[in-house]
Amino acid sequence: ETMADIFILIDSAPHSRPYMASLQIQGRPNCGGVLVREDFVLTAAHCAVPLQYTVVVGVNSLSGNEATKQELTAVRSFPHPNYDGHANDIMLLKLNSKVQLTEAVQLIALKTGRINVATQCLTVGWGDIGDNNTLARTLQEVNVTTLSQPASARTPTVKCLVSSFLKGDSGGPLVCDGATAGVVSFSGRKCGDSKTPDVYTRISSFREWIRSVLNNN
Question: Is Disulfide bond included in the keywords of this UniProt record (predicted)?
Fold first, then answer.
């Protein structure tokens, strides 16, 4: 496991996280994700829904009509075959077409190997900015510093000491060294409660599965 210290939630600079995707149902954000290919978004398996997601990229504010905004539809989902409601909480979504890569819409690389001690990471999302179902108006981020190495290289999760993400952030990234190292899985029962740490799905444990899905689709 990787423990981390959490700092203050801040507004992301507009379009500074161009890999971010908002997964929406009937215009309302439900989960986050990241672009890993022009036609694929990486998110959490617990974000799976029976309806088609509208996938919004290239925006800072979800309420505005930004010129950089692109909307697509998720036409097929690939939850990890061993997802059991808790473990292996990772999913890929195939889009109906390729996004147009611009300054505001970019892909993110997958993190390889372990996360080193004292690595500066961040979590990004449009989720609840408190414990009161108030969604963020613009993209938010919080800095994370890892404090210890995983107890086992086979542990497919990353833990953070204090809750940094909230409702609506599920499926979003833990970004370390400019690459996505984790997928937001679940958080503590209360925002900022160090007794109930955040849990991310560790990307490096699923690189082969991700590569297989992308190569075959």
Answer: yes
Place of tokens 């997802």: 83
Catalytic site residue 163? no
List the chain domain ranges.
Answer: 4-14+108-204, 20-107+207-215
pTM of the full predicted structure? 0.86
Instruction: Give pLDDT tens digits for 55-78.
Output: 999 999 988 889 999 999 999 999
* Catalytic, out of 12, 15, 22, 46: 46
Class for the domain spanning 4-14+108-204: mainly beta
pLDDT at 71: 97
SS3 209: helix
User: Does the active-site annotation cover 12?
Assistant: no
46 carries an active-site annotation: yes
